[in-house]
Every structure is written in C-alpha cells, then in structure tokens.
Write a structure and sequence with these properties.
The protein is α+β, with helices and mostly antiparallel strands and 134 residues long. 27% of the residues lie in helices and 15% in strands.
Length: 134
C-alpha cells in the first residue's frame, strides 16, 4: 500500500487553527504521473529578504525572544516569504519589530530582541550581511 505524506507550511497551519477558520476540506487525487509538479519558488520580501537570499538566515529558522525583567518570552519561525510567525499568534508579521511588538504589546526593536539558535540577534546577522561576511 502506498504511503501519502502531506506537508503544510506553518502559515497554513496557523490559518487552519484559528477559531473562525470554518470547515476544512481536503481533496486528494491519486494518479500516475512521470513528472513531479513543482510549486514556484517563494521569493522573500520585506526586511528579512536580504538575509534569506544571502543564506545567513533560512526559512524554518527558529527565533527566540526573552525579556527576563518583564518575565516575557516567545518563540517564532522565519517563513520563506520573509515574514515571522510567532507561536500563539494567528498571523505572520512582515518585520522583526512588528513580531516583537506583538509579543511585548509596545513598540519594540525586533532586530535586537529576536535571536537565532546560536544566540546572535537578527541585527548581528544584518551587520554580517552589510560587511559581506557570508
């Protein structure tokens, strides 16, 4: 018996898990084909586009925001289109600062608040890009 694997992008999962998403309908058509159907590549846009196209940041990279004194933390994921999906939020944000503000509830500089797994900030990556050290 063949195995079917379905992969959903984080932004699709986010939309589907919102309370007002309504019914979800999935149609699967099984046919034999010799050619694979490929989706067109996603072109990153917005403030993170340069980091994504340079390879300094990759789609799917987890981000972490921690504000110890405010007892606040959050996790997020970089999407292929250059936006940031914050855990627990129903939409992706077009910039690091908008994503950080969604967590803090106040204006915030997301470039210095969001960190990649190795501890560097997005601002550190942006500086590296500007210096040409990819």
């Amino acid at each position: 018996m063949p195995t079917i694997t379905i992969h959903l992008a984080p932004e699709v999962i986010s939309r589907l898990t919102t309370p007002d998403a309504g019914p979800i309908e999935v149609t699967i058509s099984l046919t034999e084909t010799t050619a694979l159907i490929q989706e067109p590549p996603v072109v990153p846009a917005g403030p993170l586009a340069g980091l994504l196209t340079s390879g300094l940041l990759k789609a799917g990279t987890p981000l972490r925001l921690v504000q110890t004194r405010a007892n606040r933390s959050a996790n997020a994921t970089v999407l292929a289109n250059g936006s940031i999906l914050v855990e627990g939020k129903t939409r992706a944000y077009s910039s690091p600062s908008k994503a950080a503000s969604a967590v803090t509830g106040t204006p915030a500089n997301g470039w210095v608040l969001w960190r990649v797994p190795d501890g560097r900030t997005l601002d550190d990556l942006r500086d590296q890009l500007e210096e040409g050290d990819q």
